[in-house]
Every structure is written in structure tokens, then in C-alpha cells.
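Hi Y.,

Following your request, here is the sequence exactly as I used it, all 428 residues.
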Amino acid sequence: MGSRENIEAGELSSPLLDVDGGRNSGGDDVGGSSGSKQSGSGSENSSATSMVVLSTLVAVSGSYVFGSAVGYSSPSRSGIMDDLGLSVAEYSVFGSILTIGAMIGAVVSGKMADYIGRRGTMGFSQIFCIFGWLAIALSKVAWWADLGRLLVGCGMGLLSYVVPIYIAEITPKNLRGGFTTVHQLMICCGVSLTYLIGAFVNWRALALIGTIPCVVQILGLFFIPESPRWLAKIGQQKESESALERLRGKNADTSREAAEIRDYTETLKHLSEARILDLFQWRYAHSLLVGVGLMVLQQFGGVNGIAFYASTIFISAGFSDSVGTIAMVAVQIPMTALGVVLMDKSGRRPLLLVSSAGTCLGCLFVGLSFLLKVSSCSNIVLFQFLIVIFNYFFDSMKYTMFRTFKDGVRSPQVSRLLAYWYTQDRSH
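Below is the corresponding structure, written out as C-alpha cells. Let me know if you'd prefer a different format.
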């Protein structure tokens, strides 16, 4: 094998996710096998088996947990402040400490996923989340609720990395793009349904409800296979092939895909372990600028601050808490689903350009409507417009960020960038 630079320029230069969404799957093979240019064979045109669908659904249960944690602080604000006697500043600590935990979880997510596997990391993260939700539900004092919120954040940080990686590693190439974006759709569903449920139940019941998807994922992990790529990476070739057969079906020919995975893992063994300083080499400058730049600009847009305090904004606009959140859910989920569909059809860059422009206009109009004291009807319409456009932008940004780095440096670097992402204005 050649040097690290030669390997990255060759075998590992192709991304784990299919760039063209299956339209040109022939050129995306790792290892440069002679049959990689032939379409219609191997796993390139595989259909989604029941095991792939089940495994994805179990994995995205964690995505739902992620969303429910983000959406919890908005509908529970008044209840927690009244019952625990919190000031606005103390409740701000409760809301923002989630991001501290998420930062901790994100830092170790890459290493943990490599050491104990994708399934093990998902299960471990849900233990954090369950204890966190229970601590919040049973809390009598502010610090106990803060501790629970911190634990949920740690689990959320782990899930933010391992879920999309697991889905990308178990799905056929022609389906990876669509299946991986379900992660973002379920985050949106978690946020939206937590808003909706929170309009009808108190904050303690809402925290207990938050444990349900955690238990669902833990139980589901016993019925799905481990990632074949991770098994091959740790030298368990037979287990890797067995997992691949379960995912593709007993009658499917998995020999070619198994050979590709072996070539991939053998190539990785000849790479020195990636360090954070590797990101600052000149050849990564463009990827670093795009990956970090998209995250920073998206966070500085302030949309997460709006999401964390959506109920307060609706009340300020003259609507009741429940009416406002229900209206937002009615727009957010279907439009995010549409964003998932458009991801592969319209391309990442056009979607980013349109959605970022829309986000800018939405933020401007919402701010002006409150500044100029425009009618409540205008406020709510503009606020929904902002949420709709933002979902397009957020969906595209996260998908693009995971793909800006070569496979040789992706695992540790993305986990660190996720930690950086959480330190931005999510604390609002």
C-alpha cells in the first residue's frame, strides 16, 4: 500500500453515502474492484429487505429521542417554572445544559462507536436518556432536573453520530441517501410531537413519555444485526458475512459486497489513526471550510433559539400555547418529509441556496413583525414560513456535513465537529 495521501486519493476518496442517490451507483465502490463499473449487480440495485427496514426503524427511534429532547423545553417551560419555583435565568440553565451533555456525548461518540459497535453505542446512549428522563420526571429541586437534562444531552450527543452512520452502513448503495435522511425526518417528528403532546399533558408526564422510544430502541436492538462494516473492521469476517446475509436476504448474492467491505477494511488498516490536527492540513481546507462553515452559519441564524422558546413566541403573538404548537406541527412534519424527498432529486447545493435565502427572509420578517407590532395573524404566518424553510436548510446542511470528509478521517473528526456544533447557539 502507498502513503496515506495516495490511499485517500484513491480507494478512500469515494464517500460512504451514494452521491447521486443511486443514479450512478457504479462508480462508488471502495477498493476499486474490477466489477465496480457494472451496474445492476451486487448490492448496487438491491431492494430494501424487511430486515433493512426494521433495522432502520429501530435506529431512528434514537432520532426521535433526539428530537423529543430538543422539543421538551418549550411546552414544559411554564409548568417547570411554577412547580419548581425557577426564575427565568434558572430555567435557561435547565434548557441550555442539554447542549453541554450533547457536547460531551458527541466528543466520545466516534471512539465509542468504533470500540463497542454501533448497536452497543445506541443501547448505551438510551440508558443515559432513560435515567435522564426519569430524573426530570421525579425531580423536586432544580439541580435534580438539571442533572436529568444533562444525562439526556449525553445520550443525544451519542445518537447524533451513531444513528446515521449505522443506517449508511447497513443499506444498499442505491438506497443510502434516502434511508439516511430518515434520521432527520424522525428528529423533526420528535420535536413536533413533543410540542403537540406537551400541549395536553404536564411536564412530568411528558418526561415519562420520553422514555418510551428509549425502551423501544433498546428492545429492538436485540432483533437487528450489527453493522457488517464494523464487524469486518474488528476482524470478525464470518460474523460480518452473516450480518450481511441477514440484511440482504438469504437468497441474495452478497459475495461481491462482502469482498468490497474486506477491501475497504484492509485499506483502512494501512492508514495511521486520524488526529484532530489532520483536519488543518491544506488538502482538507476546502472540506473543513464547507463542513464547519455550514454548521456555524446555520447556528448563527438563531432558529434553534426560536425552536426552544416556540411557546413563548406564540403567546407573544397573541395565540394560546396549544393552538400555536399544533399549527407549527401541522406545517413542520409534512414539509420536512418533502425535504427528504427533494434531497436526492434537486441536489444539495440548490436546496441549500434556496433554503438559506428563505431562512434569512423568514427571520427578517418575524423580527419585523414583532418590532412593528403587526397583527397576530401575520406573526403566525411568518413564523410558520420560517420553520418550513429552515427544515429544508437544516436537512441539507447535516447531510452535506457528514459527507465533506474522506472516510479515513471521518469517524473521529465528525464526532468532534458535532461537539462544536452543539456549542453554538443551541444554548438559547
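The two ends are 49 Å apart (CA to CA).

Thanks again,
Q.
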